[in-house]
Amino acid sequence: MTPDGIVMYQVNTVLGQTTTISRFENHPRLLSSGRVSCVVGEVDGSRLRLLDGESPTEIVMVSGVNSEEPESLDRPWTFNGPGDKPYTWQIMLRSPVLFVSGNAPTPLARYRHAKLGIISRSRRAFLEIFPAGINVIDFIVVTFVSYAKHHWVDEPHHEPNLSAV
Predict the structure, then answer these.
(1) pLDDT in tens, 53-88
(2) CA-CA to 19 of 20 to 30 Å: which in 73, 103, 119, 154?
């Protein structure tokens, strides 16, 4: 965690292998024991595992692209998360937003693209966590990495920007 209170993560992918997502620890007890990070999730092909807690949780994708429709970069990605709640990553105004699906969809997080600073101030890309998502930050980061990997990096017609993923 940075002095500003921002949780830090690291994403590692071995070519053609599993992508692991690690969270850097900030608790003094863990740091004094030499533990500086812990793996919170894994993405392997179409399988997504959340490793937060006692036992790993498999995230099951409910819907993505329909076989009848042509592929689209802004297609929603719906899956069941912990507690069997339905979640959806969907593009809204060029940025992916994570919602808890239900009667009134609640936004949990949004990816903010980097700005070059030509017209306005420059900024790095970041994942904005809304108040409703504070208690599930690891879950949000792991599902975002999976979403980005499948929808930006693995798309044959899309030029990946690895600094933004």
Answers:
(1) 667 778 767 665 444 444 555 678 888 887 788 899
(2) 73
Cβ(158)–Cβ(165) below 8 Å: no
> What is this structure's pTM?
0.77
> What is the token pair recorded at 12?
């590692």
Q: At which residue do the structure tokens 């239900």 appear?
A: 102
Measured distance CA(93)–CA(13) in Å, rounded: 29
Of 26, 55, 56, 54, nearest to 43 by C-alpha is: 56
**Cα 1 to Cα 9, 31, 124, 134, distances in angstroms:** 9, 12, 17, 14
Give the pLDDT confidence of 132-148 residue by residue, as tens digits. Answer: 998 889 899 999 988 88
> Nearest 5°: phi and psi at 32?
-70, -20
Number of residues in the chain:
165
Residues 64, 79: Cα–Cα separation, whole Å: 9
From the CB of residue 45, how many other CB atoms can be counted at a distance below 10 Å? Answer: 10
Which residue shows structure tokens 């693209």? 113
Residue by residue, DSSP assigns 31-81 as HHTT--EEEEEEEETTEEEE--SSS-EEEEEEE-S-TTSPP-TT--EEEE-
